[in-house]
Amino acid sequence: MSGKPVLARIITEDAGRICERLNLGAVADKRVLITGSSGLIGIYFLASLRQLIDRGAGCKVTLVVFSAPDALFSELAAHADINVVRGDIADPLFCRALPMSDLIIHSAGYGQPGRFMSDPVKTIALNAMGTMELMNRLSPDGKFLFTSSAEVYTGLVDGPFHESRIGTTNTDHPRACYIEGKRVGEAICHAYRQRGVAAKSARIALTYGPGTKPHDRRVLNMFIEKGLSGTIAMVDGGEALRTFIYVTDTIEALWNILLTGRDGVYNIGGQEEVSILALAETTGRLMNATVTRGATDGVAGAPAVVRLDMSRYETEFGKQQLVPLQAGLARTIEWQRALYALGN
Question: What is this structure's pTM?
Fold first, then answer.
């Protein structure tokens, strides 16, 4: 099977699983606005909404993108009830022209360290000014979701980290633009909650899966891209520990938090902890690729451990039955093979 049908099948199947596991009746007849809608999280929100619309949900969706969307995104968004708007969320004038909405999901921004560190001012603006401006596009009884990050725990060493805690980094940390931007976005949500707005933040840790663009610079995607050529060359020794979560599990949790969450801040993370070296080796086995370890210190400011306390979410919504890492990794590899088969 050629690349394009595989890409569409994977996203469609995954979106179907999301819809089956959730009661998304609260989305019916709502005006929904999603920023960063062509990114990994955004495209899965789009795919699940498209299935609901096809089933007669009647919601009106506005998708905000910064760059020209690809063919798969355009296919998913091809519906009379879905409007794609291209612009910059860091631009207040652009934000003020967006439609009033009942549900706003603010997922714009860079999730790739190499990208968010390359333009610190833009990174801060997307999370700070963008969040503030979008709050003014929310209907009086609307609900707002800010996609924060587990990076706010950077500096802590004795995980798992609960939502009541925060990291210890200073404002001159190599990743300060991202860390502080996410903290400011959360603070804006908290300030609006004090006004009675249903605003929530989700601290997401290491979501992975199909839906990414070519040459994505997150570690797992780089391993797969390198594995396609037969050798996964690591930049360091891979001692750092991570807990990954497959994208459908993240989207399920985000929908729950947005629609019925009672608290202001939630962790979203996986259950299987793995070292970066073990991740590379598992990817290598699945792709029949060799793995070589590097000698550098890796990406500047990267935390040694990312491990979240999921008790707040699980107390409210129950323990998730997560996609096992190896199964999710195999599906992600299938996506990447099809993606690069298209000549990207």
Answer: 0.93
